[in-house]
Structure formats: structure tokens, C-alpha cells
Amino acid sequence: MGLVIVGASLAGLRAAESARRSGWDGEITLIGAEEHLPYDRPPLSKAQLDSGAADALVPLKSRAELDELAITTLLGNPATGLDTSGRRVLLGEAQVPYDALVIATGATPFRLPGADGLTGVTGLRTHAEAVAVRRALDAGARTVVIGAGFIGSEIASAARKRGLPATIVERLEVPLSRSLGPEPGEICANLHRAAGTDLRLGVGVSGLESAGGRVTGVVLDDGTTLPADLVVVGIGVRPATGWLEGSPVALHDGDRGVLCTASLATSVPGVWAAGDVAHFPNSRFDGDLMRLEHWTNAAEQGALAARNALAGPGEETAILDTIPYFWSDWYDHRLQFVGTPRADEVVTLGPRGPGAIVLYRRGSQLAGVLTIDRPRDIMKFRRLVMEPGSWEEALFQATERTAATV
Ligand SMILES: Cc1cc2nc3c(=O)[nH]c(=O)nc-3n(C[C@H](O)[C@H](O)[C@H](O)COP(=O)(O)OP(=O)(O)OC[C@H]3O[C@@H](n4cnc5c(N)ncnc54)[C@H](O)[C@@H]3O)c2cc1C
């Protein structure tokens, strides 16, 4: 019995560590679908695509460190079901009983219909996929990325860094305009253009061409065919909750992520969730229901879910009122975002490119900030989002900072 965590990646590992750190001396079992010890994903679309990067995977914690924390791992063992009345996780024929359970199964990329089994077509979520992408780049692949999201943009950037041709195909007229707004989206588009990435906007993909089981091209809705040796599909992810279907754990009607309270409790007593799989109401942003796909959130939520899962009877659970934060590295630029882009108004200050500060207003307050190449400023704005600072104050600070660097 004891604490069982399903999903052996960032959120799951942080859950296990924080359980031990908070004094839990019972059993901890970490169940993972992948064969590997937990490892970090952000480098998969960054340093691990550089030429000369090692194939070897560097885990977030070594086997020895996990042993020292007395964490039992069941790797290469996907959970197939959940019996909440018997408090058991099902692994095919096997069962793992629990007193408290943390769900940390993250998310799985959407696939392109008809692409299964075709060499040269991949998503990028796992270490094996990163190795495949890097090897294709090493071989000088003409790269087409489908979807102009953050990870897709990093892959185009890796290709251009090597001087290889890279094209991004995006259904929206302006990349990231739904998540960041039209003007910041245009700034992002210009980062691509300046680096020589060919952006095909407002067009979808109607199919792939192949020869001998290997992709040779991407056919667009407008009839164009883009020659390609490597096609990376970055059209979003779905929470990995197939194994929970049929269980009483309440899932989101839309994307089937796990619905949680602000303390990360699910609808079933004793079952908690954390990381990319979890929806939670964020009290800092009017209780907005959020499901974040950000490294810092997965780490924080994993730790909190385990502490709450192990709270004794009558002990209060803590709530998560985090300020979302993520970063992304494109070409030689660092994009950083704090807060929420769900806003009443979006204002860009400074250059419409590197050095820009984009402010997001909700009511009379600062709700979010995007910066490009301003790693020191973003932390100051994070404090302002946290306070939360007034819109006037945010405008004043952003004006001062951008003026100082013009
Ligand atoms: C290529 C890439 C680059 C990224 N770059 C950035 C970045 O620059 N900045 C940033 O903020 N964030 C970035 N992220 C996002 C960040 O890595 C994720 O938010 C984080 O990994 C989420 O952690 P998680 O533990 O919730 O889920 P995941 O990391 O998805 O892990 C879930 C684990 O659960 C396992 N699993 C799934 N189903 C089952 C099952 N049924 N049974 C057992 N195990 C199961 C999966 O195999 C996986 O190992 C990036 C992500 C990727 C993929």
C-alpha cells in the first residue's frame, strides 16, 4: 500500500520526492509507461537537437538517488485502468494497491492521420523521438514542421541553426495568435522570417507523399507540395487519460484532462492529479480553469499533490495559486511568459521584435507579460503580476524599460 504515483516524469518524480521530504516513511511506488527513469523534456527540442548531442539520456534522478529515497519504480508498465472502490491501479493483469494516488500521466501528441508507420514523420515528446529528429537533422533533412506552436518553432530553429531548410505550416493566418494575441503572434512570425524559416500560414495539410515507406513531401490544402525528409507534427497534445475512462474520476468534457480542485484533489477521495494532465481553478486569475503545459507548473503541482495526498485527517490541504510561467528558445532569442494571456487588452511596448515587452490587461490589473530577450525584466514583471500591480504601473515600468534600451 502507500503512495502510488502514475506517470514517471517531472510531476510524478517531484511528487515522490516531496512525499519523502515532508516526512512520509511509507511505501512510494512510481509507475511509468516509458522504460526510462524520469527525464527532462525541454532540452529535447533545444540542446538535444544540436549536432554532436549525445544519444544517452540523462535522468532527472539517478537509480542510486531514487534508491536512497526508497522509491520503487515500475517502468515500462503503463497503467491500464483504475479501480477506485478497491483502491487499485491496474497494470494489465497485475494490480498495485494504494492508500493515496497521484495521477501524473501528462499528455500525448496528436498524430497526423495516415502518417503511422511512415519513416521520417514524428512528434516530439520523448527522448527516442528527439534522437530520431536529431539524426535526421544530422543527415541534412529538409524539415517541415506542422503547427507553429512553441515546440515546433524550436525544431525549425534547430534546423536553421544548422543552415538546413525549414518550413512551418500553420492553419492560422498569424502563428500563436489564439494563445498570445495577433500582434505578439506577428512578432513571433517575424522571428521565424528573420531566421530564414519559410512560414506557410492560413493553410492546412491535406496529406503526405512517400516512397518506399519514407516520407518525401507534405501536400498542402492549396495544392502545393513541400519536399521533406523530416516532418515533425506539432499540432497539440491530449491529456493521457485513456486509462481512466470508465473510472469515476471526473474528466474535462473537452480534452478529457483530469478535473481537480485548487488543492489538486480529483472527484474521487484519495486520488489527486498534477502536471500537464490536470485542470485546476487558479484563484489568482478569477478562478479560471487552467491546464498548463509548463515545466514549472508540473514541478510545483507534483510536489503539492503529494503533500496534500498524504495530509492526515483534519490536516488542511494547501491550494495552488501559481503564476504560470514558461520559456521557449527560438534561434538566438528567449521568449518568456508569466501570468495569463486571457485578457481584455494587449499592448506591445518597445521594438516589434527582440526586446519587446507585451502586457496583458484584465480589468484594471496586469494579468500577463511576454518578453523577448529580457530575462532580467521578466522576473520583475512576475512580481507585478503576483501583487497584482495596476495596469498604469505596468505600462509605466514597461515604457521605462523599453526606453532605456532603445
Ligand atoms: C519537447 C518539449 C519541450 C518543452 N519545452 C518546454 C520549455 O521550454 N518550457 C516549459 O515551460 N515547458 C516545456 N515543455 C513542457 C514540459 O516539459 C511539460 O510541461 C512537463 O514535461 C510536464 O510534466 P508531466 O510530468 O506533467 O507530464 P509528462 O512529462 O508528459 O510525463 C507524463 C509521463 O506519464 C507517462 N504515462 C502516460 N500514460 C501513462 C500510463 N497510462 N501509465 C503510466 N505512465 C503513463 C508518460 O509516458 C510520461 O512519461 C516542453 C515539453 C516538450 C515535450
**Gyration radius from CA atoms, angstroms:** 22 Å
- Main sheet: strand order: 3-2-1-7-19
Which consecutive residue ranges, at least 5 long each, have pLDDT under 50? none
- Portion of residues in beta strands equals 25-35%
Task: Kindly give the count of domains.
Answer: 3
CATH superfamily of the largest domain: FAD/NAD(P)-binding domain
Given helix and strand content, the structural type is alpha/beta
Chain-wise SSE layout:
Elements lengths: L2 E4 L3 H12 L6 E5 L30 H6 L2 E5 L5 E3 L4 E4 L2 E4 L2 E4 L3 E3 L11 E2 L4 H12 L4 E4 L3 H12 L4 E5 L6 H4 L1 H13 L3 E4 L3 E7 L2 E7 L4 E3 L2 E4 L3 E3 L18 E2 L11 E3 L4 E5 L5 E3 L4 H15 L15 E6 L2 E7 L5 E5 L7 E6 L2 E8 L2 H12 L4 H15 L1
Parallel strand pairs: 1-2, 1-7, 2-3, 7-19, 9-16, 10-11, 10-16, 11-12, 18-20
Antiparallel strand pairs: 4-5, 5-6, 8-17, 13-14, 14-15, 20-21, 22-23, 23-26, 24-25, 25-26
Helix pairs in contact: 1-7
List keywords for this structure.
Enolase-like, domain 1; alpha/beta; single chain; 406 residues; 3 domains; binds flavin-adenine dinucleotide; FAD/NAD(P)-binding domain; 9 helices; globular; five-stranded parallel β-sheet
Question: What does this protein structure show overall?
Answer:
There is one protein chain. This protein is of the alpha/beta class. The protein has three domains: 3-108 and 237-309, 3-Layer(bba) Sandwich (FAD/NAD(P)-binding domain), CATH 3.50.50.60; 111-233, FAD/NAD(P)-binding domain (3-Layer(bba) Sandwich), CATH 3.50.50; 332-405, FAD/NAD-linked reductase, C-terminal dimerisation domain (Enolase-like, domain 1, 2-Layer Sandwich). The protein is built from nine helices and 26 strands. The chain has a five-stranded parallel sheet with strand order 3-2-1-7-19. A hairpin with a 4-residue loop joins β14 (214-220) and β15. The chain is globular and about 55 Å long. The model has no long low-confidence stretch (mean pLDDT 96). The chain binds flavin-adenine dinucleotide (FAD). Flavin-adenine dinucleotide (FAD) is lined by residues 6-12, 31-34, 41-42, 44-45, 78-79, 104-107, 124-125, 151, 240, 243, 275-277, 293-295, 298, 326-328.
